Each structure stands twice: as structure tokens, then as C-alpha cells.
């Protein structure tokens, strides 16, 4: 592994994302492409969508590695971004978005950027020829929607994605998986740069295009790195949040049909809605005992992500190395 | 003693992690039983065992959701 190239890629991806993010903040504001930040006093207008900066920053990975894995990575991210962008402009109905997200899996399938022999703890390498491609197809709607559903507070989706990618990026470095390391480092650097502007108080929002792109990034890296179980453990808070919501409301539904999971108080702190019909979300569970500020809830969600990543590192150390 | 919501969710994450590892242990035992099989049958059985493990995860996550919601969202 060429460490100088890795360092150049990190710096380049970081700086390009940061510059484009700052540029987007100005341009989107001028074009009045803003949304109110609902959990703050006076509801300041925040530019959206800024996910394009992450896409371009991550594209730099292709400068250092050109093969079917890298191409599948970039195509999957781009497709997820475009689906999200359409959603940013014209909202999709309940099940449309997850169905369309399957399209983002097609580059991975057709370029065969996966191995249907994953390594599993205790089991070792096991060939699951029929099931694996189906899991790849299912993985994209699951993760793109999981990141989309957790994108409710300042900085959370970017922070959680950046934390979750760390274990399988480390795995790529330890195993000498050059392609995975280059793709992962470009993605991670881009996320860190975007986080600087997305963290509380947000100067820009990623939009559905940004959050879906992040979900696609997680699942593609997991597959191309052959670190599926490490990835699943690292992303447990994302899976929990998505699964809890869907299983409590009984499937994909329009936002307008749902009862808000949190009640915003006069001082802009939030507390869990005790209505049993409102969706079970991580944020609602966290704010179930006392009112909390947006920053407190966001920090707690990221703490859960850090714990999951720590468990993922333990899994890697015990079963993979 | 009342535990905070984040503590309970952290314990739940650890529980889910242990369950994931246990499910792979179960998968290993199931695969060992199919050692004598060969050809297309073993490939199909491996896929079915994988599906069974996924079904266990879905049921487990559903029960976890019921548990944490009961603990934290009781009126």
C-alpha cells in the first residue's frame, strides 16, 4: 500500500469537499434553496442539498484506483445521489424511494463487485450463491433509507456514517485490501470535511441526496471490503432506528400520515411523544425520560454509534485477524 | 434502580451483538450437519440456512424493539 498516495487522497478529498460545501452554502442561499431548521429558535434557513460535495470529494478515489470495484462504488453512489436529488425536489411516496434504491445495487451486481463467499464469525468462508446477490439488492434500500431516516438532527447522519465506516476501513488497511482502502479513505475524508459544516449548528444540510449517498457508500464499502459482519455490527444504531420505525408503523408510509415521535417544547427542547401510535425512533427512546436539546439527542445517537463501532472492532480482532 | 435511556440502549446494542454472534454459532452447527451432502443440494441448503439466520435476526430485532419501547415509552 502506497502511504503517500493514501495521504494525498485524504487531503485532496477533504479539501475538495470542504471547498465545494462552502461554495454550495453561498450558491444555494442565493437561489433560495433553503429549508427551516425546525428544532431551533426563529427557525433559521439552512441551504440544502449539500450532498453533492461528498459525491465529488469521494469521486477522487478514482484517481488512484481504476477497476470494477471502484467503478461500482462510484456508480452506486451516483445513482443513490440522483434518486435522493429527485426526492429533494419532488417528494416520493412511501414505498417508491426504497424500490428505486434497488437501482443503486445494480452496478455492484453487474460489475460483479462482490464475492458470494462472505467470511462469517465461527463459520469461516461460506458460499451462499443464490442468497448473497439478493442480500446485495436488499442492502441498498435498507441502508439508503436507514441513513435517510436518521437524518433528523444537525450532523447526525454524517457523524454516524463517518464513525461506522472506520471499522471496515481499518480492516482494509490491516488486510492490505488496496482498493477498499482507497475508496474508504476518500469517502471518510469527504464525510469529515462535510461534518465540519453539517455539525450542530448546521450551516448546510445534506438533503435526501446526501443521506442516501451516505447509505449507499456504507453498503458498497461493506461488500467490496468483504467485511459484511463487521459492517452490520458497526451500523447497528442505523439498523435499529430504521427497523424500529418500520416495524412500529407497519411499513413505508408518507411523513404526513405519521404522528411526530417528539414533541418540541417552548424552549426548543424535545421530549418523547407518549402516543403509542407514534413511530418508535432512537431519538424518541433517548428523549423518553426528560426533555433534551437537539445537541444532547444528536450526541447520544453518535455515542451509540461509537459503542457499535467499538463492538465491531472487537468482532474484527477476535474473528477476522 | 432506574437506568438512563442511553445506558439501556447501549446494553441493548451489546445484547444484539451477542445474539448476532450466537446466530453464526448456530449456523456453524447447522452447516456441520450438512457435511455429508454434495452437489446442488448442499448449495441450496446453505442458502436456506442463511435465510433461517436472517429470519432469526428479524424476530430478534422485533423483540428488542418491543422490549426497549416497553421499558422507555410506558405511559
List the topology elements.
The complex is a heterodimer of chains A (about 325) and B (about 80).
Chain A: H1 3-30, E1 34-36, E2 45-47, H2 51-59, H3 61-64, H4 68-89, H5 96-101, H6 106-110, E3 119-120, E4 124-125, H7 131-150, H8 156-175, H9 178-198, H10 207-224, H11 228-234, H12 236-249, E5 262-264, E6 270-272, H13 282-286, H14 294-320
Antiparallel strand pairs in A: 1-2, 3-4, 5-6
Helix pairs in contact in A: 1-2, 1-9, 2-4, 2-9, 2-10, 4-10, 7-10, 7-12, 8-9, 8-10, 8-14, 10-11, 11-14
Chain B: H1 5-33, H2 40-72
Helix pairs in contact in B: 1-2
Mean pLDDT of chain B: 89
Oligomeric state of the chains present here = heterodimer
> Any idea what the shape of chain A is?
globular
| Quantity of strands of chain A, as a count | 6
**Percent of residues in helices of chain B:** over 70%
Q: How is the main sheet of chain A built?
A: 2 strands, antiparallel
Parts with pLDDT < 50 across at least 5 consecutive residues of chain A: none
Tally of separate helices of chain B: 2
Largest interface, per-chain counts?
A: A-B, 39 and 33 residues
Describe the protein.
The complex is a heterodimer of chains A (321) and B (75). By secondary structure, chain A is mostly helical. Chain A has a domain at 3-226. Chain A is built from 14 helices and six strands. Chain A has a two-stranded antiparallel sheet. In chain A, strands 3-4 form a two-stranded antiparallel ribbon. A two-stranded antiparallel sheet of chain A has the order 5-6. In chain A, a hairpin with an 8-residue loop joins strand 1 (34-36) and strand 2. In chain A, helix 1 packs antiparallel against helix 2 (51-59) and helix 8 packs antiparallel against helix 9. The longest helix of chain A is centred in the first third of the chain and has 28 residues, at 3-30. Chain A is globular. Chain B has 75 residues and is mainly α. Chain B contains two helices and no strands. Chain B has helices at residues 5-33, 40-72. In chain B, helix 1 (5-33) packs antiparallel against helix 2 (40-72). The mean pLDDT of chain B is 89. Chain B is elongated and about 55 Å long. The interface between A and B is large, with 39 and 33 residues.
Amino acid at each position: 500500500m502506497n502511504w503517500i498516495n493514501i495521504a494525498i487522497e485524504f487531503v485532496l478529498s477533504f479539501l475538495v469537499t470542504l471547498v465545494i460545501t462552502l461554495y454550495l452554502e453561498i450558491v444555494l442561499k442565493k437561489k433560495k434553496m433553503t429549508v427551516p431548521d425546525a428544532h431551533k429558535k426563529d427557525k433559521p434557513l439552512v441551504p440544502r442539498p449539500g450532498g453533492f460535495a461528498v459525491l465529488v470529494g469521494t469521486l477522487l478515489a478514482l484517481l488512484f484506483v481504476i477497476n470494477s470495484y471502484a467503478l461500482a462504488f462510484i456508480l452506486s453512489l451516483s445513482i443513490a445521489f440522483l434518486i435522493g436529488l429527485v426526492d429533494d425536489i419532488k417528494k416520493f411516496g412511501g414505498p417508491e424511494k426504497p424500490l428505486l434504491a434497488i437501482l443503486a445495487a445494480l452496478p455492484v451486481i453487474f460489475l460483479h463487485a462482490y464475492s458470494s463467499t462472505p467470511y462469517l464469525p465461527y463459520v469461516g468462508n461460506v458460499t451462499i450463491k443464490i442468497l448473497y446477490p439478493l442480500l446485495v439488492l436488499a442492502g441498498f434500500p435498507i441502508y439508503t433509507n436507514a441513513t435517510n431516516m436518521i437524518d433528523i438532527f444537525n450532523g447526525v447522519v454524517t457523524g454516524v456514517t463517518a464513525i461506522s465506516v472506520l471499522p471496515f476501513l481499518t480492516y482494509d488497511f490491516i488486510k492490505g485490501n488496496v482498493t477498499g482502502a482507497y475508496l474508504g479513505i476518500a469517502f471518510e475524508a469527504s464525510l469529515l470535511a462535510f461534518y465540519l459544516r453539517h455539525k450542530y449548528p448546521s450551516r448546510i444540510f445534506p438533503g435526501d441526496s446526501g443521506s442516501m449517498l451516505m447509505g449507499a457508500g456504507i453498503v458498497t464499502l461493506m461488500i467490496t471490503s468483504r467485511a459484511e459482519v463487521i459492517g452490520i455490527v458497526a451500523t447497528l444504531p442505523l439498523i435499529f432506528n430504521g427497523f424500529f420505525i418500520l416495524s412500529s408503523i407497519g411499513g413505508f408510509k408518507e411523513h404526513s400520515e405519521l404522528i411526530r415521535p417528539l414533541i418540541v417544547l417552548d424552549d426548543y427542547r424535545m421530549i418523547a411523544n407518549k402516543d403509542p401510535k407514534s413511530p418508535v425512533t432512537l431519538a424518541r427512546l433517548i428523549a423518553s425520560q426528560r426533555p433534551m436539546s437537539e445537541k444532547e439527542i444528536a450526541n447520544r445517537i453518535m455515542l451509540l454509534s461509537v459503542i457499535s463501532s467499538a463492538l465491531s472492532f472487537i468482532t474484527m480482532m477476535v474473528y477476522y485477524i | 434502580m432506574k437506568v438512563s435511556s442511553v445506558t439501556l440502549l447501549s446494553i441493548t446494542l451489546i445484547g444484539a451483538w451477542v445474539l448476532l454472534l450466537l446466530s453464526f454459532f448456530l449456523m456453524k452447527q447447522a452447516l456441520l450437519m450438512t457435511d455429508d451432502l454434495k452437489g446442488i443440494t448442499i448449495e441450496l441448503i446453505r442458502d436456506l440456512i442463511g435465510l433461517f439466520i436472517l429470519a432469526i435476526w428479524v424476530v430478534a430485532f422485533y423483540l428488542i424493539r418491543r422490549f426497549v419501547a416497553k421499558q422507555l415509552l410506558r405511559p
